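YM 10:42: EF-hand domain-containing protein sequence, as discussed on the call
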Amino acid sequence: MGIKGSKDVQLNDVSKIERRMVEAMRKRAKAGPSPFKSFNSILMKFPKIDKSFEQVRGVFKKFDKDDSGTIDLEELKTCFRELQVEFTDTEVKAFHEESDMDKSKGVDFKEFIIVLALVYLLGETGAKPVKQKEEDKGKGSQLKNLKSRIGLAELESTFETIVDTFRFFDKDGDGYVSRKEMITAINEASPGQSSSGESIGVKRFEEMDWDKNGMITFKEFLFAFTDWVGIEEEEDADEDEEE
Ligand SMILES: [Ca+2]
Ligand SMILES: [Ca+2]
Ligand SMILES: [Ca+2]
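YM 10:58: structure's back
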């Protein structure tokens, strides 16, 4: 009687990268609570975050060799090679697929930020041993390489800020933001207006839950976050939904 392990079905559908990402978030949560105490303190970081994302645009353009507006798999392989981010071809392909949110077979600028964030987070957890050259020993993780190569010193702190923001929402530290957690966080941001806080929370949650599975992963969070801070696509400006 009863089907054993039916709860695991969903987990099996989760990609390896997503699982590693969830692990990375859980590890952070164990280390302590988010330094952010209010949503307002997060909002104050937005201009700085936006600025560092804009710096990534130059990197994106550099690796979009054919100027197509997206980075295809071959271009991403070149990118990783030149940044000396050491992942196997299979892994680069997985990163590419994982970050291609709209499954358009190319990584656009916003999706490229996801690639870099995944590289940063997963490189850092040491989930996979990284071969380091003798002269790089002691200089640290892949990100250090990444950072020095592309000269984006602010990107590391931006990713940290966004991870801390995610952790502000992920109250129970399980590596996902649930609908309830989103509503709680939004309510904290506007105390005394619990009914509007709740509907805003639901709206934000639905915006962020890209695959509509009832959980927000860090990837989904980051993807929506790039809109929050005001990144704009160069060509087709997204039509804003009515508030
Ligand atoms: Ca391209
Ligand atoms: Ca959670
Ligand atoms: Ca989801």
